[in-house]
């Protein structure tokens, strides 16, 4: 757990479409681009070992790429190096943040000044969702997985804690990057669950099927 006072004002930012990280969840990543290998090397030298994940905004072709202002920072808690110099890492979600401004410098990757204000709940204990009704939720999820040809360990889903279940599905389900951003910005676990249900119902009604699984 991080006290708010220990969170840095500037962090490296990894813009990766569709890769969602949430507080108290874990995100495995495969790092191979030289600029992001440099980012990881630098992050490992810091006491906090934080990397901020962020979603690029959808912009018209030819326009300057921009990032959503809200992302989630994770601490590097596991990594291994392959023989050809790539890294397999795990980020453990610490807290969401809001980008204040991008930082120019000599690093080959993006850095940003961030504020952690408004996300104190992320640093606390796990959330509960008092309105969660597991049986109809899993029935809806089963129809969604069947429609997408996906499989899972249903026994584990039946036993998983509410936050772990909802956040894991938010991260892993094949939704578009803008939908992932909506799940990230949900102010509470119950709001995230409601957003997740809406996205699943939309997909089952014939919404876009062009999303890519992480």
UniProtKB/TrEMBL annotation:
A Pfam family this chain is assigned to: LON_substr_bdg
Residue ranges annotated for the Lon N-terminal domain, each copy included: 11-204
Coiled-coil annotated spans: none
PANTHER family: ATP-DEPENDENT PROTEASE LA (LON) DOMAIN PROTEIN
Protein name: Lon protease-like protein
